[in-house]
Amino acid sequence: MFLKKLETVGFKSFAERVSVDFVPGVTAVVGPNGSGKSNITDAIRWVLGEQSAKSLRGSKMEDVIFSGSDTRKGLNVADVTLVLDNQDHQLPIDYDEVAVTRRVYRSGESEYLLNKQSCRLKDITDLFMDSGLGKEAFSIISQGKVEEILSSKSEERRSIFEEAAGVLKYKKRKLNAQKK
Ligand code: ATP
Ligand code: MG
């Protein structure tokens, strides 16, 4: 499984439709300060279900919507789609390509789509659980994360290993079953 493409319109500084192709060989994104490099990783975490506005460097979820510039009016919706190659079927879904979409409107409404079909956030978190990709999975190491891992409690550190080993979903299912 690997990241193929990121498409967005209206997310943070991306007022125009932007498509980033992660063709083989792409290993870095470079650009001047404030040009939107971190906004790309924010978009990836957001579409995978990030719920914390603070962790997306804003104060409320509406802050992810393009707020306007000197030459452009603000927009009313932010839309991000992540396309993943799933030919190895690492994601437990019967598709060779998986497109995950998240949209949020200024009115506060939001929606998630899986291969263009409306779905719940839970469907997305379940799909990515134990895959290594997810809003907090080990494939995304944000600034300060290494220090955080080293200084965290052993139980917290354990969950990173559990996700890598692929046992987290069984633990969550067990917990859910015990609650019922
Ligand atoms: P650095 O090299 O300093 O880390 P960067 O390339 O990572 O920079 P980002 O943090 O991705 O830059 O982009 C910041 C820019 O995004 C700022 O100019 C900010 O004004 C703009 N921005 C953030 N949110 C919005 C929004 N909702 N609407 C419009 N512009 C936004
Ligand atoms: Mg940055």
From TrEMBL:
<feature type="binding site">
    <location>
        <begin position="32"/>
        <end position="39"/>
    </location>
    <ligand>
        <name>ATP</name>
    </ligand>
</feature>
<protein>
    <recommendedName>
        <fullName>Chromosome partition protein Smc</fullName>
    </recommendedName>
</protein>
<comment type="similarity">
    <text>Belongs to the SMC family.</text>
</comment>
<comment type="subunit">
    <text>Homodimer.</text>
</comment>
<comment type="function">
    <text>Required for chromosome condensation and partitioning.</text>
</comment>
